[in-house]
C-alpha cells in the first residue's frame, strides 16, 4: 500500500477542552489509486493530511507511507520520507517566487535525488506549460500556477501525492481539466493520490470518495 492508516486517534485542544478530532480512523490507498477526501469545514481534513505528511506528531495509531512507518520516526527520518516519497500540492501552490517555472519544477526532484531533466520536461508538456518554463510564478495565472505545482510535486516520482483543495481558486472548467490531468498523471506514474476537496464535481473524477464526519471516515462511493 502507498498509504496505510490504522486506528488513528487525534485530539486537539479547543479552548479549555480537549476535543477528539479523529477516532479510530482506518484508510488505505493503493499505488495509482485516486481518492477524494470530503467533509465539512473543521472536520479535520487538513489535520489528517498534515499527520500523513509527518508535519504533525501522531498521538495514537499507525500511519505508513510506501511501507515506511511514521509512528516512531525521528524528525530527520520524516523529512527524508517527505523528500523521497511524498509530494504535496498546497491550496496556495507555494511556488518559490525567486525561481523560474523550470527551476520550480526541478526543485522537488533535486531534493529527492531523482533529478531527470527529461521527466520534468515531459510533465510540463503533458500539462501544457512548456511555453512557461522561463517565466516566474508572479506572472502566471492561477490555473498556470496550479499546473506548475502539479508538475513540481510529480517530478520527484512520489509514491503518495497529497493535495489540499488544489482547485479552490480555479473556475469550474479549469478545475475539471486540471483534476483530469492530475488523475491521469498519478495513474501513469503509479502514484497514489489523496485529494481534499469541497467540490462534488472534482470528487466524482476520483476512484473513491471518503467523507470525514463526526470524527470518523466513511466510504461514500467506489
Ligand atoms: N494545532 C491545532 N490546535 C488546536 N486546534 C486545531 C489545530 N489545528 C487545527 N485545529 C482545529 O481542528 C479542527 C479541524 O481543522 P482542519 O483545518 O483540519 O479542518 P478542515 O476539515 O481541513 O477544514 P476546512 O475545510 O475549513 O479547511 C478545527 O476546529 C481547527 O480549529
Structural account:
- This is ABC transporter.
- Belongs to the ABC transporter superfamily.
- Residues 3-222 form the ABC transporter domain.
- Keywords: ATP-binding, Nucleotide-binding, Transport.
- It is a single chain.
- The protein is an alpha/beta fold and 222 residues long.
- It has a single domain (34-52, 74-221), classed as Rossmann fold (3-Layer(aba) Sandwich), CATH 3.40.50.300.
- Helix content is 34%, strand content 29%.
- The chain has seven helices and ten strands.
- The strands form two sheets. Strands 6-7-8-3-9-10 form a six-stranded mixed beta sheet, with helices on both faces.
- A hairpin with a 2-residue loop joins strand 9 and strand 10 (216-221).
- The longest helix has 17 residues, at 172-188.
- Adenosine-5'-triphosphate binds next to strand 1 and helix 1.
* Helical stretch tally: 7
Shape: globular
Order of helices and strands: EEEHEEHEHHHEHEHEE
- Strand arrangement in the largest pleated sheet: 6-7-8-3-9-10
CATH domain class: Alpha Beta
Approximate helicity band:
25-40%
InterPro entries: AAA+_ATPase, ABC_transporter-like_ATP-bd, ABC_transporter-like_CS, MacB-like_ATP-bd, P-loop_NTPase
Family: Belongs to the ABC transporter superfamily.
Organism: Colwellia marinimaniae
Keywords: ATP-binding, Nucleotide-binding, Transport
